[in-house]
Structure formats: C-alpha cells, structure tokens
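Example 9 (inverse folding). The structure is encoded as follows.
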C-alpha cells in the first residue's frame, strides 16, 4: 500500500505515552487532524482504557467521534471471524487483564486492523510471544504493526526519527 494512503489504528499505550513529550499538545492536535482526515482511528475500548490517563483522555475527547471506528465496521462479519481466530490462538490477549476487563481493546484492535487493512500502532515489544505484535503475525490475521515513534514519523508529526528511538532488538533482528 502506498505510504500516503495508509490508515492507522492506535493502541492505548501510544496515546497515553505522548503526554510525556514536551510537544504533546501539538501531537494530540495532529492526531485529531489525522482522525478528521480518516487516517487515524481506534476502537471504542481504547477510549474506555484512556480513563486511567486523564490528560490524554482530555486532549483526545474532542476528536473521539472522528477517531472511533464506526460500529458497523468494528462489528462486521470479517472482524468477528478474526476475533474467533484470536480467541482460539491468542487467548492471552484477554488473560492479560487478569479478569479486570472482560472487553479489552487489544483483540478488537487486531481484528479491525486485519479486516480493514489498518496499520496497528502499539508500543508493545515486537519480539514478545504473547502480545499484540505476536497476534498480528498469526495466520488469518497478518496485519502490519509498528511502534508509536515510527507512526509519528510516518504521518510526519515528527520530522526526525533519531537512532535513540529505535530499540536495539528491532534494529539487529535477523529477519529485518
């Protein structure tokens, strides 16, 4: 897919960590503009999870209507099929919440990204065997996943991606 035509689905951890940056207000405004342009989306469950992060939730609330994937897309048959695959092959996505959240965002993010060709954006370790990136590589799922700094650079909200932003385990991977 042409880089200029990519669409992104963003995980809670990326949206929450932006608040740590000096340019957080500009980044949140940029994400809002990208949501308005139908480039950036997330699932309803991410906004539920953002309640634990008052500042990002406050900054993103004005963009919620544009950011949240429409229900007819999130609950499409193609998404349901992928939720079933994840339930059978990646049950750890539900187990990670320790029963505190019966409707976690991760399975929905992965299923929607896979079904509708979004790039999934998360800061989770791409080499972990029981996290979002591992589930994205499952047969029947196969969706692109990148980390937050790479997303910000791809959508040109960051003008420079410094070597310090690249995790060594990603840089030195044999399959890179």
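The amino acid assigned to each position is listed next.
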């Amino acid at each position: 897919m042409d880089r200029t035509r990519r669409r992104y689905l963003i995980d809670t951890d990326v949206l929450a960590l932006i608040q740590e940056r000096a340019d957080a207000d500009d980044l949140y405004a940029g994400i809002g503009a990208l949501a308005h342009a139908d480039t950036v989306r997330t699932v309803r469950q991410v906004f539920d999870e953002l309640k634990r992060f008052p500042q990002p939730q406050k900054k993103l609330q004005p963009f919620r209507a544009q950011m949240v994937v429409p229900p007819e897309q999130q609950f499409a048959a193609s998404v349901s099929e992928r939720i079933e695959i994840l339930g059978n092959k990646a049950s750890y996505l539900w187990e990670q919440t320790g029963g505190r959240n019966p409707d976690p965002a991760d399975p929905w993010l992965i299923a929607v990204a896979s079904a509708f060709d979004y790039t999934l954006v998360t800061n989770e370790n791409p080499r972990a065997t029981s996290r979002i990136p591992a589930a994205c590589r499952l047969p029947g799922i196969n969706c692109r996943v990148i980390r937050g700094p790479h997303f910000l650079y791809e959508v040109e909200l960051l003008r420079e991606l410094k070597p310090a932003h690249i995790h060594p385990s990603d840089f030195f991977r044999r399959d890179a």
